[in-house]
Design brief:
Elements (H helix, E strand, L loop, with lengths): L21 E5 L4 E5 L8 E3 L2 E3 L6 E5 L6 E6 L3 H18 L4 H17 L1 H12 L3 H21 L6 E3 L8 E3 L6 E6 L6 H13 L2 E6 L5 H13 L6 E3 L7 H10 L3 E8 L1 H11 L5 E6 L4 E4 L5 H12 L12 E4 L1 H15 L20 H16 L3 E4 L14 E4 L16 E5 L1
Parallel strand pairs: 9-10, 9-12, 10-11, 12-13, 14-15, 15-18, 17-18
Antiparallel strand pairs: 1-2, 3-4, 5-6, 7-8, 16-17
């Protein structure tokens, strides 16, 4: 029996072209910035075709900064998902036999196209997710970097010759693709998380079905345009789109369908637990990157300036919306006051605004629910004795904005130390 080794993930890992320019409001002056819209699609990508939902249903994608609708995409259900699985399953029957060199070349072409279109891809991230365009450009560069990396690693999937204890036998280990892989990717890094997962799977000879977060599917669909141009065959890379209401049934099929051999998810711990339970029914290979309660620890011996620089980078990146953001900042008593004062000077200098504005360092949170959660955590902490040093309330910029905040006097009785904040709030524990 041949061993099935899935060397795939970096961690644990009618065509609808809208022939117009996409206008995005910029800042309080209401000025307008345009970027090329050639990569925007309002259809899902299944089996090499751009498809609508069978019901014709769609859902809207909104710019979290302005609230404006920037596109509508198909609201797919389990029926379309099953069809996508079948297309990926059929494509795997041939893709698995392509040579490492062929897969490497295809991924390299895909990488080159991402670099060629990096400004448009970054603009799309800012439009649908809200992060400052400079941060979005950085995401595109490391997103493309995953494809570059896997294009090179595709040629290096070596087997092993294992010493035998029996003179008449020789043991060989061969690495083979496991089959169809399913992925659910998050909204905070809509390009980077997709290429990190899909690039690895495709390099290994697997086929891919991905359901991107319902808030940010446009980046995933744009990558389909470039994958097709790069020569990725039909059925090898598929994107299904579904609303928050239809996501549970789509997710259940992706985790329970026996045609899928591997499942990967990046998102909340609660959702990850549910998906793991569902994957158990078919004993799938699973990779999970879930939320956490990351500490940032500052000892008395620390250099205050260096500690604050590190805390700012860790806490306020992407307006605090990353799974590796510092959730609890634990500062030793002797250095506490100096650290908080230095941190305050940096936080008050942050510029909250539209992601397309040149001076913006903090964009919006992804939606109103995210702001509600942050507000709830801050209110709970203050009701139990925490002190707001700066910020502490919704920002006047709009309903999806929250002020960069520092809180002191935080202790373990407060929900903010027990839940992932996912917002621009630095909770300092003395």
């Amino acid at each position: 029996m041949k061993p099935l080794v899935f060397r795939c993930f970096y961690r644990s890992v009618a065509l609808s072209l809208v022939n117009r320019r996409l206008a995005v409001k910029l800042g309080s002056r209401g000025s307008v910035r345009f970027f090329s819209n050639n990569l925007v699609r309002d259809k899902a990508y299944i089996g090499g075709k751009w498809l609508s939902a069978e019901s014709g249903a769609t859902f809207q994608i909104k710019n979290p900064s302005t609230g404006e609708t920037i596109a509508s995409v198909p609201d797919m259900t389990a029926a379309e998902t099953s069809a996508a699985i079948q297309k990926a399953y059929e494509a795997f029957q041939t893709w698995q036999y392509t040579t490492p060199k062929e897969r490497s070349n295809a991924l390299r072409r895909w990488y080159n196209l991402m670099i060629e279109h990096k400004e448009d891809l970054a603009g799309l991230i800012t439009a649908e997710m809200g992060k400052p365009v400079g941060d979005a450009q950085g995401e595109i560069m490391y997103s493309a970097g995953f494809l570059e990396w896997y294009s090179e690693e595709a040629r290096r999937v070596y087997g092993d010759i294992i010493p035998s204890s029996v003179p008449s036998k020789q043991y060989l280990a061969m690495k083979q693709p496991v089959g169809v892989t399913a992925m659910i990717t998050p909204w905070n890094f809509p390009s980077g998380m997709l290429t990190r997962k899909a690039g690895a799977a495709i390099a290994a000879g697997c086929t891919v079905i991905c359901k991107p977060a319902e808030d940010t599917p446009l980046s995933a669909l744009a990558l389909c345009v470039l994958a097709e141009e790069a020569g990725i065959p039909p059925g090898v890379f598929n994107i299904i789109t579904s609303s928050r209401e239809n996501t549970p049934e789509v997710g259940r099929l992706l985790t329970e369908d026996p045609r899928i051999a591997k499942f990967s998810f990046t998102g909340s711990t609660a959702t990850g637990k549910l998906l793991l339970q569902q994957c158990a029914s078919t004993v799938k290979r699973v990779s999970m990157e879930l939320g956490g309660n990351a500490p940032f620890i500052v000892f008395n011996s620390a250099n205050v300036e260096a500690a604050v620089t590190g805390a700012m980078a860790s806490k306020f990146r992407c307006s605090g919306q990353t799974c590796v953001c510092a959730n609890r900042i634990l500062v030793q008593e002797d250095i506490h006051d100096a650290f908080v004062e230095a941190l305050k000077k940096q936080v008050v200098g942050l510029k909250v605004g539209d992601g397309f504005a040149a001076d913006t360092t903090q964009g919006p949170l992804i939606n109103v629910s995210a702001v509600d959660k942050v507000s709830r955590l801050v209110e709970d902490a203050t009701s139990k004795g925490a002190k707001v040093v700066v910020g502490g309330k919704r920002h006047e910029r709009g309903e999806n904005f929250y002020e960069p905040t520092i809180m002191t006097g935080v202790n373990e009785s407060m929900q903010i130390t027990q839940e992932e904040i996912f917002g621009p709030v630095a909770s300092v524990i003395k």
